[in-house]
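Ticket closed. Logging final result for SET domain-containing protein.
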Amino acid sequence: MRPLHILSLAVGASALQRQISLSPTASCPWRLPPPQLACSIDELDDLSSAILPPRPPSPPPSKWEGPHDCVNQYCIFSNPGFADGRGIVTITTARAIEKLKAIEQTRNIVHPPNPPPYTIAPIPAKGLGLLANTTLHRGTPIMRHTPAVLIHRSFLEHLPPRRQHALLDAAITQHLPLTLREAFLAQMGHFGNPHKISDILITNSFQMDLGGDDNHHYGNFPEVSRFNHDCRPNVAFHIGADLTHTTTAVRAVQPGEELTISYLGMFEPRAMRQQRALQAWGFACTCSQCGLGEGPAAKSDGRLEEIARIEGAMADVASGGVTPALLRRVVRLYKEERLEASVAGVYTLVAMNWNMLGEEGMARKYAGLAAEAAGGEGEGDAVAMRELERDPRGHFTWRRRVGG
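Final structure:
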């Protein structure tokens, strides 16, 4: 995988169970001396244990353990039963661990798709990546995972490395469940940090906010690190208030097509994206968007500049010149630029501006699209857009641009 760095802003087959129904005149499924033709209870018990698969072990109950070891106010806490037995380890403060426990009490257990709609395979010039193994449609879920490792941001940013390393080593090697530990350590680090665990965290972590003051953390999801980068990805990600990292297809994907997310700001011009990729992650982006010729690339940069101007006008209620034609124009620009992974924000602005123009039907349409694209029904922007979709005239934006 190409390095993911710290992003800010975004199998199994079912066991076959066999049922056996035997009557007193039925033949037993194994040899018996005649005239015994009916199976005894003891023999049925032996048969069941021989042909039925063993029951999978029950996941351990959720139980927080720790603090195990501490450096200043930062301590290791672990929970092998977190998220229905997935497990988690965190280095955080006593205050933040209480917030994490509260989040766990309110979260719903959401399992990843089974079987997964992808396979891990070598990708030319990229290492390992993910290939779709079935046809995916817009909105198809690909992964749903809670973090394996959660580290308080101030621990990583304010403590000297020599004071971090021992605690990080203990957290991963002593308190992370074996399966997650192996998955974590299998990730690549791309910054040359001699401390492997630190290098993995810097390369493959996402910023997360538990809510409240001083609750910013870095979360690591080993499965998600398999996504390679594309400036125009076919997958979008969303981290919910319950800490679940969800990835969904943003357009139709055919079997064998690589699944990608964007590590970079998709609205930056090509030269800036390439510079950032090289300086921050050490690779030259060769995606189809960065591979455009000079003429098409200049047109793409021009569309991005126009998008920024239009969105600035839409965000300013006092701005004049926001017309139906302008709203249609910005939607068209997103399609031309293949920005499907970032449409939630623009659909939200478009929905509210249609409502400000008193166009109820169009406001409902784009509010619904915005809620769908937000990826977190029941959260934040998705809730606000569902409210607008349900009652445009009762929304605070109704006819704000036409007066009344």
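Residues 1-51 have pLDDT under 50 and may be disordered. No further action required.
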